[in-house]
Amino acid sequence: MRAASNVPPVTRRAQARLGIVLALPVAVVTAVFFVFPMVSALYYAVVDFDGLDPTPPFVGLSNFTEMFTDTATWHALGNNAIWIAIGTAAPMIIGLLTAVLIWSGRRGGPVYRVLFFLPFMLPGVAIGIVWGWMYDPVNGWINRVLGAVGLGGLSRGWLGDPDTAIFAVLATAIWATCGFVTMIILSALRNVDVELVDAARIDGANAGQRLWHVLLPQIMPVFLMVLTLTLVGGFSVFDIIFIMTGGGPADATEVLGTYAYSSAFQLNRISYGTVLALLITVLAVPFTIMLNRLQRRLSLQGMGA
Amino acid sequence: MVDVPVAASRGSESAGQETVRGRDVRRSGGLLARHLVLIAMAALTLFPVLLIVSTALKTPQDVRSNPFGLFTSFSLENLQSAWTVGRFSSYLLDSLLLSVPSTAVVIVISTMAGYTFARLPFPGRTVVFYLVVLGLLVPFFTYMIPLYFQLRSMGLLDSLVGANLVLISTNLSFGTFFMRAFFSDLPDELEQAARIDGASESRIFAQVMMPLVSSGAAALTVFTFLSNWNNFLVPLLYLPSGKYRPLTAGLYNFTGGRSMDIGPLAAGTLITIVPVIVIFVILQRQVTQGFISGAVKG
């Protein structure tokens, strides 16, 4: 592709040969461990596989019709929706404001960046364990703090109460993702034209107006990229819920990921689990593509191309 | 948490209309408020991490009587029992056996493929590239269940080789994309000059171009290692018997096992996160670069 016109044919053939050799490993691994199981997933979706039967019966679309009439699917999907809405909006808002605070705070940027980013680096299991302690009904710090400020009446077993469990896990996830958003946005803010911000200040724009009308448009491509990543992560959330509540209490925190896992590996309904997992893909991929397009268009405009 | 930063930015709101001197005073006040908010948030961020450290380093009796009191005693007993009785020494070894080989292979394959997709056109390249990119779009969930049975029929279930291969494949799309961005940024003149000097295509790759992306490869190494170290789902699914068990899976198993033994559990958690924290603090530039340039350039 690049500068193909002024490259002599001999070179082009040598390049193609080396190119094939160098791309071979990635092609093989992708074919065996990605493409092949993807195709199998489509096959599993139209049979009724229990994990043992080498020739599972063909059932057409009945796995899909079952999925759409299964109230548990809709319940899980509803939790995914809560997760996506709050689990995207909260880190985006908190992360954006934190980044702007660090950016305008002049000093200590590197230190804050390391501190805030740390939770994002920690394994989900460790996060789940320590937040389980935070939410502990008797000794947990959340209840201790509530008691100390006179709100002891609110204290409860946060993860054991079906009304609060999903939000308790969400709060943990938000704690773990905010730093990621902060760091990416902070890196984008470095390229912002400060003179525009100062000009807006002189024209009497307040902090909110400066953020909304001056800063945000300049970092829009990066903002959308982070939005895509958090949003798509919301469809395939698994680790943190599986570790903290396992989908319980009484399915209160069940999402598509945990439902697919338990269907396949605990109830041996391999095909049904596969169909549920396919639903995650069908929901997540269009979002990714759409937002990617938008982001690309904006970043091209931004560079004046 | 949400309304705090709003309150802080309000402090600097009216700054615009004051006299120059008044504005300076106001703005330094705003600056102080900003840092107070940031420090409060940093405390909230760090608190759970401190809770792990404190609980792990308490005496077992203290953990029983006051499990989550901060730094009320000091002992290495919990670490000792996690290391020996809790089998965390063998979990640590398995974590290394899963993270190191897979990371090395990811870096090698991604560098090769990244170079090809950036600079070496060949027939069919676009198709292969789109399949690799597809790996970035499709969640692991989609194919994790069929992959289990595929590994079983290949005899790779419950083996380090099988789990390593899965970790490699799940990181390859990002790695290839990432390295491709670095190779694309290199100027064509370098390549042309080397070619005029009579260098073969493979020499241009190995001796001219590859050294120039070493910072990218370093960032990718750190990033991939951490993502493999932290991976939970792959050992959970593909190492089911517990013959091999990395720290993440070991920890999870520990929470499910017998009575919740908080002291050793905290110690095990500490063993799991200390390498992550050390690597991150020392190599944070590489880690963050891994995220930023990979994501932004891609």
Automatic annotation (TrEMBL), chain A:
GO terms for cellular component: plasma membrane. The keyword Transmembrane applies. Residues 77-291 form the ABC transmembrane type-1 domain. The chain crosses the membrane at residues 20-46, 81-102, 114-134, 165-186, 219-244, 270-291. Gene3D superfamilies: MetI-like. GO terms for biological process: transmembrane transport. Its main location: membrane. InterPro entries: ABC_transporter_permease, MetI-like, MetI-like_sf. It is a multi-pass membrane protein. Pfam families: BPD_transp_1. SUPFAM superfamilies: MetI-like. It is found in: Cell membrane. PROSITE patterns: ABC_TM1 (PS50928). The keyword Membrane applies. Keywords: Cell membrane, Membrane, Sugar transport, Transmembrane, Transmembrane helix, Transport. Belongs to the binding-protein-dependent transport system permease family. This is ABC-type sugar transport system permease subunit.
UniProtKB/TrEMBL annotation, chain B:
Residues 92-283 form the ABC transmembrane type-1 domain. Gene3D superfamilies: MetI-like. It is found in: Cell membrane. Pfam families: BPD_transp_1. Residues 1-21 are annotated as: Disordered. The keyword Transmembrane helix applies. The chain crosses the membrane at residues 36-57, 96-115, 127-149, 161-183, 204-226, 262-283. It comes from the Bacteria. One of its GO terms (cellular component) is plasma membrane. It is a multi-pass membrane protein. The keyword Membrane applies. PROSITE patterns: ABC_TM1. Its main location: membrane. Belongs to the binding-protein-dependent transport system permease family. This is ABC-type glycerol-3-phosphate transport system permease component. It comes from Kribbella shirazensis. The lineage of its organism: Bacteria, Bacillati, Actinomycetota, Actinomycetes, Propionibacteriales.
